[in-house]
Amino acid sequence: MAIARSAVVAALIGALAVGAAARAGDDWDTDCTTDAGSFPFSAQPVAIAGFLGSIRGCLSSGPLAGADFEDMYVIQIVDPAGFSAQTVAPNSTFNTQLWLFSIDGTGLLANDDVSVGDPLSRLLPMSNDGSGAQVSVPGNYLLAITGFNNDPSSDEGPIFNVPDQTEISGPDGPGGLSPITAWNEFGETGDYLIVLTGCAGVGAPTSVPLMSTPVTAALIGAFVVGGGMLLRRRAIA
Length: 237
Description:
six-stranded mixed β-sheet, 2 helices, disordered N terminus
């Protein structure tokens, strides 16, 4: 009995380790050679088939024709409650801003600064500005990054109203009900690393079945094997 239980425990520990590594996700690295585009029609699909752990890229001021002040990506959010996106140091070298849009280009969430004095940015699944905006359903979304103070607008005006730079804002600006059509000015530029949770590439299944995740399959396998060993020992006894 002790040997069988030990086998189950060992299998569970191994399964959790494998699952944690798998859910860390893959890294999407543009090498600053492929422009992700600035608008929904030119956004770069993150074309991986599994969990998405981070996006690396850069914005550049350069000559005007080669300038790149916004990057927009098509990502899949598979776990709305577990969603987060955050620029991290030292790989992010400028004052960042993060923007999440519905796939049709209408605004959803925005953040400038994680906290007072911290120029990096973080999105969570729900706004905290009283707008009630949140990520509520799995699916494809648009994630954009700009430098301060380059903000999105629609034909009706600014999409977000951000009086507090540390808030996670909903689309409460005068243009908040319409899709993005412009960015309002040139922002800061540099390298960036966006760390993500609850996300996958657009090549992944729209919903990841539990049995397809390594941790769940291994856990179930451990219980099946362990349970069989226990039943067999009881039968022999």
